[in-house]
Amino acid sequence: MDFLPSDVTVNAGGISFTLHKFPLVSKSGYIRKLVSESNDADISTIEIPDIPGGGETFEFAAKFCYGINFEMSTENIAFLRCVAEYLEMTDYAVANLVGRTEAYFSEVAIKSIAVAVTILHSSENLIPIAEKVKLMSRCIDTIAYIACKDNQFSTSVRAEAGINGLTSSMFSNLKPIVDWWSEDLTVLRIDFFQRVLIAMMGRGFKQYALGPILMLYAQKSLRCLEIFGKGRKKIEPKQEHEKRVVLETIVGLLPREKNALSVSFLSMLLQAAIYLQTTIACRLDLEKRMALQLGQAVLDDLLIPSQGTLYLMLKPCSVL
């Protein structure tokens, strides 16, 4: 069988593709404009360096242009939807890629928290186009809706944490009691995690019930800290900044209700806050919370290691 020789090279996301103009311009408004507006009547190279998802995602778009079937999945739908938007694969074909990805997204992708979280996590590196097509807002709304509908938490659920040594194990030993979907949320970047929790509260999720979810997220994101002892290791400035943002955001989301969190957990957060040199407001907030629950505290909860080998007793009167 004879094939027409290729007449264009597309450099997309660092990968070169040898293709044909006709199938591309027939289904991509973006490429159609590049070709029609080019000063070169016989343009042979097209540069698309900033394509969402890189060259791997463009390959799916190219297959679509050629009528080659491929499988959509929860892992690639965010990339496919964004590349379809970027390449303007909508009005230039009856069966366009925007329509197909939207259909998949609506019919399959946002029917469960796990799937919505997977797509939301994939969208983290697709800003701003993922925001433009409302991928993230729709995923966040789905998570909030299902979490509140499922609503299996109760006022008696309390996460208990204990200090088990003064090393990074302080976070890895937390075993909060959480809803079945809470583990899924821990993969999210802190700003996305914050947006999900705010959306949940907006739908009626009680703030006091966020405690176990926040504990689990703190466990996952802060457990690698080597805070105390002779073997203390200084983390990279970028990583330290990221963890500082995580911790300050978590503190900002903590329930205001008394006894919603254990003193042990608050103490752990305060130790991390001192190590990461968070804002004074963040540290004072944690101290005040602990002061209100002194009746539940044991001695270990109130001992905050200093920079040397001595321990400093937390004095609640200093923040009242």
Element layout with pairings:
Elements: E1 8-12, E2 15-19, H1 21-27, H2 29-37, E3 45-48, H3 54-65, H4 77-86, H5 97-109, H6 113-123, H7 129-132, H8 135-150, H9 169-172, H10 182-185, H11 190-202, H12 211-222, H13 237-253, H14 263-276, H15 280-291, H16 299-302, E4 303-305, E5 311-313
Parallel strand pairs: 1-3
Antiparallel strand pairs: 1-2, 4-5
Walk me through this protein's architecture:
There is one protein chain. The chain has 320 residues and is mainly alpha-helical. The chain is built from 16 helices and 5 strands. It has a 3-stranded mixed beta sheet. Residues 152-177 and 307-320 have low confidence and may be disordered.
Structural class: mainly alpha
Helix share bin = 40-55%
Please summarize the sheet with the most strands.
3 strands, mixed
The termini sit apart by 84 Å
Strands of the widest sheet, in order across it, are: 2-1-3
Order of helices and strands: EEHHEHHHHHHHHHHHHHHEE
The whole-angstrom Rg is 26 Å
What's the β-strand tally?
5
